[in-house]
Amino acid sequence: MSDEHPKKRDFVREYLSYLQVEKGLAKNSVESYARDLAKLETWATKNRFDLLGLTRQDLREWLIDLAGENLSENSKRRMISALRGFYKFLQFDGHITKNPSENLDAPQKGSYLPNFLNQTDVESLLGVPNVSTEIGLRDRAILEVLYACGLRVSEAVDLKMSDVDIDAGILTCKGKGSKTRKVPIGKSAVEWLKNYLTVRREKENVETNNVFVGVSGKPINRQVIFILVKEYAERIGLPDVSPHTLRHSFATHLIQNRADIRSVQQMLGHADISTTQIYTHITDTHLRTTYEKFHPRAHQKSNQIENQITD
User: Fold this and answer.
1) Strand residues in the chain grouped as ranges (E)
2) Does the first or last residue of the chain, that is N or C, have fewer Cβ atoms within 10 Å of its Cβ?
3) Is the pTM of the predicted complex or chain greater than 0.70?
4) 60, 76, 200, 247: the active-site residue
């Protein structure tokens, strides 16, 4: 009997072979699809995702992350075409039961701006967990840290006890490319972390240095955080909320309150400032919507002004 582990299947390679051999796609088209799917694979690997386990929300987050590359609308549409074809191929072959690329629209100008919550909705969400229970207290601390520090879900999962300096109000996390950054923790998040860590230290079955653990004392995974955020949000009528929504809200609220964009870039761990600048587009849109909704002269037509001048 061989001791070798079975080789992991390269589904992307199989799909590209299918395009070339069975569909007869032109070489240039196959190469473009290969580059697009390679970008998806790289992103999934960095975020510890399995290509076969990606959701529609994950694919949207990937497209948002691509905003910093200044891709043309045609390139984005081709990427979505590659996604649809790849996941249809996987579904047809029985490797997945649900196609995450279904109803994933080709981007129009200005689309795929990150979703974010307003400050009232964030406060409502933070107040949902039942903090009289161990799990509720942990979940409140997780929500507070996600919003207060703008962490990616993988960063929250990997957060270690030694990464949290409660007294200084500073959190150290390792982001994409193993780059380390320090992020301030707000007073509210500090207090909830203190409360949670007090309970955590009293647990006798914790044998890990991870901050966030389950009832068993073992580290939680990203699925746990995705589910708890989604379920708490749905309880107060907020659909399509993910951990990344809190990260987007963190950045958007900082920009709305005139934070320096370079500082926001550093706190988010963005390598390129253009990725952070997408949040300025969000706030511009927000300002325009607010103006159109509330300013008494926002909808006054030019002929009305002309009539006032000639009267």
Assistant:
1) 164-165, 170-174, 180-184
2) N
3) no
4) 247
Q: Given pLDDT bands bounded at 50, 70 and 90, which one contains residue 258?
A: confident
Q: In this structure, are strands 164-165 and 170-174 parallel, antiparallel, or unpaired?
A: antiparallel
Residues 289 and 234: their CA atoms lie apart, in Å, by 25
247 is known as an active-site residue? yes
**152 carries an active-site annotation:** yes
Does 35 participate in catalysis according to the annotation? no
Angle at 244 between CA 243 and CA 247, to 5 degrees: 100
> What token pair was written down for 261?
């964009």
Domains in the chain (CATH in brackets) are: 11-92 (1.10.150.130), 119-291 (1.10.443.10)
3-state secondary structure 87-147: HHHHHHCCCCCCCCCCCCCCCCCCCCCCCCCCHHHHHHHHCCCCCCCHHHHHHHHHHHHHH
Strands 164-165 and 180-184, sheet pairing = unpaired
Average of per-residue pLDDT values in the chain:
83
Q: How many residues does the chain have?
A: 311
Measure the CA–CA gap between 278 and 268, rounded to whole angstroms.
13
